[in-house]
Amino acid sequence: MSTYLQDIKQFTELKSAQGSAWNAISPEYAARMKAQNRFKTGLDIAKYTAGIMRQDMADYDADSAQYTQSLGCWHGFVGQQKMLAVKKHQGTTSKSYLYLSGWMVAAMRSEFGPLPDQSMHEKTSVPALIEELYTFLRQADARELGSLFDQLDTAAANGQDTKAIQAKIDNFETHIVPIIADIDAGFGNEEATYLLAKKMIEAGACCIQIENQVSDAKQCGHQDGKVTVPHEDFLAKINAVRYAFLELGVDDGVIVARTDSLGAGLTQKIPVSQSADDLAAQYNAFLETTEISNIEELSEGDTVMKLAGKLVKPVRLPNGLYKFKENTGFDRVVLDCITSLQNGADLLWIETEKPHVGQIADMVNAIREQVPNAKLVYNNSPSFNWTLNFRQQVFDNWTQAGKDTAGYDRSALMSSVYDDSELALEADAKIRTFQADAAREAGIFHHLITLPTYHTAALSTDNLAKGYFGEDGMLAYVKGVQRQEIRQGLACVKHQAMAGSDLGDTHKEYFSGEQALKASGEDNTMNQFDVVA
């Protein structure tokens, strides 16, 4: 017997035990409402999605073609529409996640208005968005199941076989998927990190991404001025997140350790070494220093340390920050990643300055010498100029191979004059297969785009405004939006239903019976969209 039918049976028995006081209660309606609200709390969601993510990680370890993907969403509605689209076009939500970007929370969700990605927004905005995303995804479940229940009733009323519809209800695939949630650098010390992680997990997060920048000097990964913390400080925050998961009963919660060391040339703190070649000593070995042979070489307030048997002065900037040696980013990334995985992290995030499979693979291969199953969450960032990057990569490959590039100006390859060229077509082919190539060759388990829906909202709004306020007038909306919604089968064309009016009507009927005042009658203009496209 299916869960749905079992619930009807259970509610029937419960109703019978209550006597006449529950005469108005329909066990079948109660079972339907329960089915439409499978996840009662955020913790239920976190536990469920953690299991999905762990299985996906195992699937990827067995076959790198089984990588996962997500898009960053800045509002619950955007996340809902994304998962409706994934399920409609792919037939399943499997291997598809949501990404919660700290950048977009700062830019879109702060009460201060648009902010840069520097941990300046309210920390409570992050768990609030997680909860909002899952509220909209649960509503997508309720809406789709509601449609199946309507089909069930119609088929039963017409004396038709209901087995196929019942099977769809029994095997319904939820829109609830894992969210990889950005906690930035933890918004404070390790206790602050723990408290915020708890709120995020209680809202539904099964996976928390944390970075090794200084919390109060945090910068976007694609901006200059990044400052990293010693390994001990970062590991304390990884521990804090793990304790938060364990306290709340999400024993298989996932931690993504992000390193910004490839682009970070500064540190705020010199850690104290307890023994030769410990983590602090390894971190300090990357510092840019000058050897000191005489106290007269020091200025007032200078810092002096013993390093590798020598007395040295680390280079300190006027702002008090210490400088790393040039060209040490690669080695610092590798050490960061190995250390994080050996101390509680599950996945890695390496923030790079360009999308280059070879560069990423070089770092991952070095990491895998010590942690063979190391794998990445990778940012397919809109901060990269993908067109220019890949055209230049092809240009450089051609040059190295001795192929004629005389017809191309490397610095101007972004130009539309090259769009139909052999070089541009080869570059586009590499962009198309980048995720599969990087999953196979560079250990990338999860591909995400941090803020795509920020850009799609801007682009679609610009196109609509251009036509609507220009010569096209209302045709800009009708031809460019509504007609496309109808012909592409977007459920959102019936925006009243998408916002919950049909669900509300159903509930009114449950609660009030024939007295229910419903909105979906024959005069509802949404009925105009019941047409053949």
TrEMBL record:
User: Which transformation does this protein catalyse, written as a reaction?
Assistant: D-threo-isocitrate = glyoxylate + succinate
Q: Which Pfam families does UniProt cross-reference here? A: ICL (PF00463)
The alphabetical list of record keywords is: Lyase, Metal-binding
Q: What is this protein called?
A: Isocitrate lyase
State the Gene3D superfamilies in the record: Phosphoenolpyruvate-binding domains
According to the UniProt entry, its GO molecular function terms are:
isocitrate lyase activity
> Which NCBIfam families does this entry report, sorted A to Z?
PRK06498.1
Q: Which domain of life is it from?
A: Bacteria
